[in-house]
Amino acid sequence: MWNDTRQRIAVAAVVALAASGCGVTDVPEVGPDFDAEAAMADYEAMEMAMASDDLSAFQALGGRTPFGSSPAAIDAMADFTTRGETDDSRAFVLGFARQLMAAASSRVDGPALGPIISGWHRGTTFVYDAETDEYQPDLTLEGAPETGVRFILYEVDAEGTPIVEEEVGYADLIDEGDGSVEDIVLRLSVVVGDETLIDYRTTLDHDATSGALTVDGFFVGDEVRLDFDVGIAFSNAGGVEQGELDFEIGVVDRDFSIVGNVSGIEENDDGVGSVNLRVRHRAHELVVDMTGEQGELDGTVFIDGDAFATISGPEEDPVIANPDGGPLTASELRVLHRVVHVVEDVFQLLEDLLDPVDEIVLLGFIL
Description:
26% of the residues lie in helices and 40% in strands. It is of the alpha+beta class. The chain has one domain (2-366). The chain is globular and about 70 Å long. The protein starts with a helix and ends with a helix. 40% of the residues are buried.
């Protein structure tokens, strides 16, 4: 699996950094010009947005949409389910991508892939039914998009179950695939109160052996707006899986952004992969350039063009040092740990955005 190689590169570094014993109470002092404390505040703001309860009403859609409840749909989805199999965001996203390819390749005949939401459902508003724990159509309600559907959102209880008496907003899922050059184009907009908390577009292109999935937009959590543009290209030819993740995420109000590329190829036991990150903290830039091959890591971290740290050696126990070969301070390790962990943050973001609507996309292929 290509993600195994990439996982070893990024995660081995994270584990080694954590084992180095940097404490959460350390005050970062990486250098006289680089404000590491402000940099850590950037990551904390991003984490707060991603963990915000503001998104709980949207996340409650997961597993409750009506598209997977019919016997035909249940049978069709039996071999293509992601929910509940893993707590690993990385495995969820890459499994979802593989399932899209498998579902698409299973279609010998059938309509064009472009429109996912059928004319039967378009323009329909769905409300939560507490008795069935699913969303049901309410034909008396207006306001749903012409080429999509609307889901009423509710406050949720401690278990994440919608509370019918407490409406908070709505989620519009709009099919933009009519006449599109992409196989699938879906746009999701979530409004709570008077504020748009989520607005993103998902596209998918594929052929018999390869595909590309993109997610582009923004969400707001705890009053922090996070913009993102993420793409995953994947293929499977001749028994060799190849994959590449490209992303850009950032908080404009903090002049904080991360551009990254993660790639990996694995054939038998010979894995090759790379992780490249470019992080902007206002006037400063931090760059991670790391590769892995046959279980060996080789990476360098730069701050404003100057070497800051090196990561090398076996993936199980890499050596992390400053450019002179000496150990990093606890504060320096803390900053480096957070930077390397960004890759996992991106996969967590994708799971949070795709999980509530994954069955709609998959069923669009199969049915």
